[in-house]
Design brief:
This protein is of the alpha+beta class. The chain is built from seven helices and eight strands, in the order E-E-H-H-H-H-E-E-H-E-H-E-H-E-E.
């Protein structure tokens, strides 16, 4: 379940393609710009990025992901234009998760020009299929900020079920909001 040495690996959806996140992506000015974008950050529930978040901290975060053999971190591209538009991540959060085949999936569609075009649904479908087919996970889990209605709908559209809600768990839009917990088994994934 490790990606080391797989720099040429490719996950493809109908609209998106994903490759392992590399130094090229880390040092692309667009990536850090997304981490400073209020609209992007509020939807991923990472308000701490809006404070004084130096690039060195972003760099350290990515290096920790690279060092974690149980984390698969991807750069997301629009297939039509070839433009780098976001990130996606599969992570076995705990030893229990790894032992029981449970991976957490997440995404950040950083380039707002690609919002409301089906990109989130497409990349979630593609990375979920990869998780089930290649990594042979048993279950995918996810969490989404309730103000990010589009992503919650994207998860549901591809077969994820809402497991529960942590009420007023996250802070976004200058108020507390719910954290929606979702999961999907392989036979629930809507592949097309």
């Amino acid at each position: 379940m490790e990606l080391r040495g797989a720099r040429d690996m490719l996950i493809q959806g109908k609209l998106t393609r994903m490759v392992p996140f590399s130094e090229e992506h880390l040092y692309d000015p667009a990536y850090y710009k997304w981490l400073q974008d209020v609209d992007v950050v509020r939807y991923i529930g990472r308000d701490e990025l809006l404070a004084d978040y130096p690039f060195a901290e972003a760099e350290n975060y990515v290096k920790q992901l690279w060092a974690n053999e149980h984390c698969h971190f991807f750069a997301v591209y629009d297939r039509e234009s070839g433009k780098f538009i976001g990130t996606a991540k599969l992570n076995f959060v705990t030893e229990h998760d790894r032992n029981h085949g449970i991976a957490d999936v997440g995404l950040m569609l950083g380039d707002r020009n690609f919002w409301a075009r089906g990109m989130s649904t497409d990349l979630l479908r593609a990375i979920s299929a990869y998780a089930f087919d290649v990594l042979e996970v048993r279950k995918l889990s996810a969490g989404a900020n309730s103000v990010n209605i589009a992503v919650v709908k994207a998860f549901i559209r591809i077969g994820f079920k809402v497991d529960g809600t942590l009420r007023q768990q996250l802070y976004a839009d200058k108020a507390y909001c719910d954290h929606v917990l979702l999961s999907c088994f392989e036979d629930e994934l809507i592949r097309d």
